[in-house]
What we know:
With 328 residues, the chain is of the alpha/beta class.
Amino acid sequence: xxxxxxxxxxxxxxxxxxxxxxxxxxxxxxxxxxxxxxxxxxxxxxxxxxxxxxxxxxxxxxxxxxxxxxxxxxxxxxxxxxxxxxxxxxxxxxxxxxxxxxxxxxxxxxxxxxxxxxxxxxxxxxxxxxxxxxxxxxxxxxxxxxxxxxxxxxxxxxxxxxxxxxxxxxxxxxxxxxxxxxxxxxxxxxxxxxxxxxxxxxxxxxxxxxxxxxxxxxxxxxxxxxxxxxxxxxxxxxxxxxxxxxxxxxxxxxxxxxxxxxxxxxxxxxxxxxxxxxxxxxxxxxxxxxxxxxxxxxxxxxxxxxxxxxxxxxxxxxxxxxxxxxxx
Length: 328
C-alpha cells in the first residue's frame, strides 16, 4: 500500500499545483498548535476519542471548545432553518453570491456536534468564498444508530438541491463528517439523485469493520485510538452490519463518485483510510486530488488560517470549488 501511495502521490496533481508529499516536517506554527492541542486533550479541555469515551462528556467538551471559534466576522449571518426533517443553519455573507452552495457536515465521532457548534467553521468557509454554507444537526449515537445520520444527511442534501435548482452543491467535512460526505454522495449515486459537484472529505473514516490495518499510525495519534473507533462502531451499528457499504465505504468500489479533494495527517490513525480511498478513486478513474501532511493531527483541516498547513488546505479547497463551478 505504501509503495502504491508514494507512486500515486507523485502523479496526482491539484488545481493549484502538485499535491505530492513535499514537506518532511510540520511548520513551527503547526508544531505549536499541535502541542497545545495535545496538552488540552491531556488536561480534558479538548476531547480524546478513546474506548472509554462518554458521548455526553464528549459533546460537552467539544461544544465548549467550538464555542470559542470566532463568528463575529463583519457581514456574517447564521439563520436557523429546517433542512429536510432536521434543524440547521443557513450561513452567508453580506454581498455574497450563490454561484456555489457549500454544505459543511461536522465531525465528532458521530457522537457530538450540531449546526450551532459548526458555525465557526461555516464562518470560515462563507467569509473566504462568499458562498452560502449549510450546516445541520444530524442524529447522533448512542441515541440514534445507523442509518439515522446517513439518512439525515442525504435527506438534507436533497432538500438543499431543491432550494437551489441548477446550482452546484459541494460537500465538505472532517472525520465523521467526512464519512458522511462520502456516504451522501454514494446515496445520491445509488438513488439517481443529482450528484454533488465535488466532495472534500478531510481525514475520513471509511472502515468500521476492522479490515484496515492501522497499526503503522497507531502510536503517533494522540486524538483517535483503535479502542475509540471500536467503541464508536459498537454504538453505531450491530456486528453483522459492519460490512454494509454505507457503514464502511471501504466495501464500495467508489464507481461514479464526484471529483474529490482529500487532506490528512500522514501519521494519524485514520491515515490509511484516506490512502485506500485514493487508491479506489484512481482505480475507477475518478478525479482525486490529495495531500498528506506531516506531524499535524487528526482532522486539522478546518483550522482555516490558524496554521500554514490548514491555510494551504483552505486555499486548495477554494481553488477546487471554483474550478468545478466552471465545469458545471
